[in-house]
Amino acid sequence: MKKFILILSLFAVSTSFAKGQKLENLKELCALEAEQEEDYESIFEELSTLDIKEINSLTAFELELVNAHLVQEEYTSKAMTFAEIKKFFSQEGEQPFNDLYIITFKSRVTGRTYIQVKTWPGDNPYGLIFDAKTGKTLAHNGDDSIVLLTQNGPYSCWSLNK
Questions:
Q1: CB within 8 A of 102, min separation 6: which ones?
Q2: What does the pLDDT look like over 34-83, one tens digit per residue?
Q3: CB atoms within 10 A of CB 115
């Protein structure tokens, strides 16, 4: 029953890709791009960082977001429990040298709170950025390049910053 609820919740989170937001409302997330790092601290305040290797539990909401990221990045094809995720990233698991973080941060400009779930399968992170209140997927972090998921389709921050 728990897995059914997780899968149903994951489906709800993943379908939020299609709805999107206005580009103007998401542009501040471009400060997360690697070449914009100097802007990060002036725009965002980091509220918390959870390292999967150091924590003992996740809320149901956090678990939904983590599973959305893991499915999106093809670590798995189905939702996993916290215990399965913890083992997956442990020294005995399939991703012992990878990290998984859940970072909650707040915009100093708009007051919006975001959650980024990201992993480091190589030198650069991959992740999804969510609205912390709704769980709606707002952006994708691919190799430290941010793509905003708007109502008019995806927009690359790199192309917006040219």
A1: 49, 50, 52, 58, 62, 65, 66, 115, 116, 117
A2: 766 677 888 999 999 999 999 999 999 999 999 999 999 999 999 999 99
A3: 24
Mean pLDDT computed over every residue of the chain: 86
Q: Are the beta carbons of 71 and 79 closer than 8 angstroms?
A: yes
Whole-angstrom distance between the N-terminal and C-terminal Cα of the chain?
A: 49
DSSP 38-90: HHHHHHEEEEEEEETTT-S---HHHHHHHHHHHHHTTS-SS---HHHHHHHTS
Side-chain-side CA neighbours of 121 within 13 Å: the count stands at 12
**Residue 122 has what pLDDT?**
82
Which residue type sits at 143?
A: D
Spatial separation of the C-alpha atoms in residues 131 and 96, rounded to whole Å: 29
Model pTM score: 0.84
